[in-house]
Design goal:
alpha+beta, elongated, about 140 residues, 4-stranded mixed sheet, 5 helices
Length: about 140
């Protein structure tokens, strides 16, 4: 209670009941265990639908090797993970790649380099389809 409020309460100008009336207990306790901190309810609905259908892909840009655990947890849940190591130092990036290679080997998944220091980890039940066109002679673009 502030000093002005105390003085007002001592003079009898205001009620000097407990300060607890200023706190909303429901708000002070925080979100329920299952809630996420999403401001747009459409995002929460889309996330739940993606979890139900198994169509999620995680993108992770780790700051250091300590973030490797999050990569492993997502991959163990069966979620493909894109790991972007472009912001990491070379030594830590090598450790994360070694961890990811062991993770994919242990869980029968695969690891593929997508770009320089960017890797795709896919669980065993996913198939990677190359986006490069086939180079067969007499194909669609053959104008002769």
């Amino acid at each position: 209670m502030g000093s002005v409020r105390k003085a007002s309460a001592w003079l009898g100008l205001v009620d000097d009941s407990d300060d607890e009336r200023y706190y909303d207990d429901d708000y002070a306790e925080g979100p329920e265990p299952g809630d996420s901190w999403v401001t747009d309810p459409r995002v929460r609905v889309a996330d739940q639908a993606a979890q139900d259908q198994g169509t999620r892909i995680a993108t992770v840009t780790p700051d250091g090797f300590r973030d490797a655990r999050g990569i492993g947890e997502m991959f163990r849940e069966g979620v493909p993970v894109i790991v972007n190591l472009t912001t990491m130092e070379s030594a830590d990036a090598k450790r994360v790649v070694d961890f990811a290679a062991g993770l994919t080997f242990g869980l029968h998944g695969s690891i593929e380099r997508v770009a320089n220091r960017v890797f795709l980890l896919t669980p065993a039940d996913y198939q990677i389809v190359s986006g490069e066109p086939s180079r067969r002679p007499g194909g669609f673009f053959n104008q002769s």
